[in-house]
């Protein structure tokens, strides 16, 4: 433990969480100014009335004040605001498929386990490629079939141009997606990739195969458009040039699949460089444009013959690959089971490491449902003439109609569970509010709701995937056997049409609003911020990974401060920011000498680092990596948590229980001494600081926030300063007791 001297100062570097934040809220000041960064990743400080950087509030330690500088790293500009960022909402299925890759269990079982893991990763990439082709096919259903082949048939001068007019908009969409997928954040400070695998987030690095995947997805998208235009994947609609286009499109799709699988192997994919990528993309573009000229358009406003077989074959490939993936994931999860068998049940991965399967299924079903919703919306808005959609859309609407009904029923049951009082209140609640029973009563429902979400979120995801999967199988069987809808199911397609249309309109409306008022794009923040954390691996058409920019720049800023003698740096992160701060701290303790490591601390607030990330991503943020990070920080990791917080929870302790009026539990190093009550009224068990919510107060001389705060405003709690001081390695003399704070 370093002994603080007269020149000791603390730099508190804050990282915010999801939904973005303002610089002023991050540093808890009326005005904030930039002191570093490139405008996208911003380092800000509080400012005085002349907009000059001002020092932060001092910390009390060892009976004297210790100077503190408060800084904040603002990364909300990478996920909030603007058309390009809002448009990612339309590509949520792609992002979920990419997230599913990072949810795979760790490689175990020697060579068989490594081979199985390679096969699973290859399957996810094939699913990603098929998802792109499904989306492009559904766009082509609207542009080439509904509008060009059917609706434009009523305009005599445009009949000869229906093929080009239908294909060109789809080609433009593919070009836009390709450009979006090539966007990346420019990192101001490049750091070497981590060489260890024992710390959280050590495998979160850029994939060198991403440029190759960009080209392959664009190539496959162009080829599937050409295939639909000339008759579909089963046979060409006409002989001659159309038949040649059909063969070329099939060959390009097959080549794209093969290269996608080969890029999954060892190596950096340099053999698939710029020249072959450009050649393949140009060739597929020429095939698509040629198909526009030779596409055999039907006489009269009739359905395009290539539409149904194209949609059905792509959907069948997706379904079969997902089934094979789910089956092969079982032995992979069983092989990895030894890594977490000794952990407490609440610390083990969700579904025993099998969670990637339901997430991938939901991604595929969302992709099919959203594309069908766009087609149905266009069909309903052009009611002046009867327009035909693929037969399968009718069963998709039935599936989503049934899903909407079941979701309503499950929501009703969940509401009843929350409203019905429980006999056993949370063990920490009574201790935190033992002097304020009215506050305990107000917080009980919030504790119950938060605990239900943390304990059962993964079960809800699995249940949704199971219900939708069963519905998809039934719908597909009914479609193949041409089974008519029974009488009792007749309302379901109407509900499905309404739901899918509403989903399509709502997402498009959000994108439109984001172009007019960029601040409204924050409403996309939760999903965007969570999905954008992961680098492009299984699908390239996803938002650029902000972690690849935030983490090295935060690390560089910390090293810059540590260059000044006597400076101690405490990284603080709220919500998703706690993951970024923990990964940055892991990179620092891995690369710095011991003398500098002892000047680093970590504070997490409202963090999902125990209940969510190690359980959902057991290969990337395993529980063992958190143990290792805690060991290297040697007591300088403090976690602020509220039982009312549905997104955050305990980080360093578990198996908590009350015995003889004392809170006990287990931590990273085993059973812990009984929790102590700090001067602010918090219960400190190991590294976890349990905060009373509502706060005790008002407190003289401090900003106070009334009511149940749940996931908000951890900065207003007086325990924040104590946690920062402890994380800085400062010895604290106990300040005023809880009762004195209220005087």
UniProtKB/TrEMBL annotation:
This is Fungal lipase-type domain-containing protein. SUPFAM superfamilies: alpha/beta-Hydrolases. It holds the Pfam family Lipase_3. InterPro entries: AB_hydrolase_fold, Fungal_lipase-type. The keyword Membrane applies. Keywords: Membrane, Transmembrane, Transmembrane helix. The chain crosses the membrane at residues 124-149, 161-180, 244-263, 275-294, 314-336, 357-378, 398-420, 457-480, 492-512. Residues 563-609 form the Fungal lipase-type domain. It comes from Kutzneria viridogrisea. Gene3D superfamilies: alpha/beta hydrolase.
């Amino acid at each position: 433990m370093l002994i603080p001297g007269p020149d000791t100062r603390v730099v508190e570097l804050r990282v915010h969480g999801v939904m973005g934040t303002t610089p002023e809220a991050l540093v808890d000041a009326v005005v904030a100014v930039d002191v570093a960064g490139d405008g996208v990743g911003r380092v800000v400080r509080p400012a005085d009335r002349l907009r000059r950087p001002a020092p932060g509030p001092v910390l009390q330690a060892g009976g004297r004040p210790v100077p503190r500088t408060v800084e904040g790293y603002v990364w909300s500009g990478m996920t909030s605001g603007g058309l390009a960022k809002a448009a990612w909402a339309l590509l949520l299925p792609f992002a979920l498929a990419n997230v599913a890759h990072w949810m795979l269990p760790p490689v175990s079982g020697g060579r068989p386990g490594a081979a199985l893991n390679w096969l699973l990763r290859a399957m996810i990439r094939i699913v990603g490629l098929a998802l792109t082709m499904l989306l492009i096919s559904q766009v082509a259903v609207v542009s080439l079939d509904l509008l060009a082949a059917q609706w434009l048939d009523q305009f005599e001068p445009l009949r000869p141009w229906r093929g080009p007019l239908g294909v060109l908009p789809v080609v433009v969409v593919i070009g836009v997606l390709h450009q979006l997928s090539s966007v990346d954040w420019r990192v101001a400070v490049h750091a070497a990739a981590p060489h260890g695998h024992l710390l959280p987030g050590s495998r979160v690095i850029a994939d060198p195969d991403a440029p190759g995947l960009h080209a392959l997805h664009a190539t496959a998208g162009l080829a599937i458009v050409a295939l639909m235009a000339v008759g579909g994947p089963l046979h060409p609609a006409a002989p001659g040039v159309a038949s040649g286009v059909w063969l070329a499109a099939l060959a390009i799709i097959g080549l794209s699949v093969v290269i996608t699988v080969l890029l999954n192997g060892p190596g950096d994919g340099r053999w698939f460089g710029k020249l072959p990528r450009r050649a393949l993309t140009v060739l597929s573009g020429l095939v698509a444009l040629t198909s526009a000229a030779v596409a055999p358009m039907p006489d009269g406003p009739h359905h395009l013959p290539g539409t149904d077989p194209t949609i059905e074959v792509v959907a069948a490939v997706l379904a079969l690959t997902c089934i094979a993936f789910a089956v092969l994931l079982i032995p992979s999860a069983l092989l990895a089971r030894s890594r977490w068998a000794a952990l407490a049940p609440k610390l083990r991965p969700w579904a025993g490491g099998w969670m990637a399967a339901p997430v991938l299924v939901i991604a595929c079903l969302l992709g099919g449902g959203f594309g069908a919703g766009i087609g149905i919306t266009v069909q309903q808005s052009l009611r002046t003439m009867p327009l035909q959609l693929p037969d399968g859309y009718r069963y998709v609407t039935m599936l989503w109609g049934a899903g909407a009904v079941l979701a309503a029923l499950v929501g009703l049951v969940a509401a009843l569970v929350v409203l019905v009082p429980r006999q056993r209140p949370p063990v920490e609640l009574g201790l935190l509010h033992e002097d304020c029973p009215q506050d305990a009563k107000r917080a009980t429902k919030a504790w119950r709701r938060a605990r239900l979400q943390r304990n059962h979120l993964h079960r809800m995801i699995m249940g949704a995937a199971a219900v939708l999967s069963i519905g998809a199988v039934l719908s597909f069987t009914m479609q193949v056997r041409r089974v008519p809808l029974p009488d009792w199911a007749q309302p379901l397609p109407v509900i499905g049409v309404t739901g899918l249309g509403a989903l399509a309109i709502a997402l498009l409306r959000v994108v439109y609003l984001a172009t007019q008022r960029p601040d409204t794009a924050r409403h996309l923040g939760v999903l965007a911020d969570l999905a954008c954390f992961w680098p492009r691996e299984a699908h390239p058409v996803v938002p650029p990974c902000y972690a690849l920019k935030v983490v090295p720049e935060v690390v560089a800023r910390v090293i810059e401060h540590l260059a000044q003698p006597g400076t101690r740096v405490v990284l603080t992160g709220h919500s998703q920011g706690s993951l970024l701060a923990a990964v940055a701290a892991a990179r620092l303790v891995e690369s710095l000498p011991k003398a500098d490591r002892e000047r680093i601390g970590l504070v997490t607030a409202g963090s999902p680092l125990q209940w969510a990330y190690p359980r959902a991503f057991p290969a990337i943020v395993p529980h063992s990596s958190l143990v290792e990070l805690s060991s290297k920080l040697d007591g300088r990791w403090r976690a602020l948590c509220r039982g009312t917080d549905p997104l955050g929870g305990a980080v360093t302790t578990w198996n908590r229980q009350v015995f003889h009026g004392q809170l006990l539990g287990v931590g990273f190093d085993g059973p812990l001494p009984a929790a102590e009550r700090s001067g602010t009224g918090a219960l400190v068990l190991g590294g976890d600081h349990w905060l009373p919510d509502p706060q005790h107060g008002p407190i003289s001389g401090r900003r106070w926030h009334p009511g149940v705060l749940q996931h908000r405003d951890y900065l207003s709690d007086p325990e924040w300063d104590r946690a920062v001081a402890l994380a800085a390695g400062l010895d604290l003399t106990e300040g005023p007791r809880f009762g004195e704070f209220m005087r």
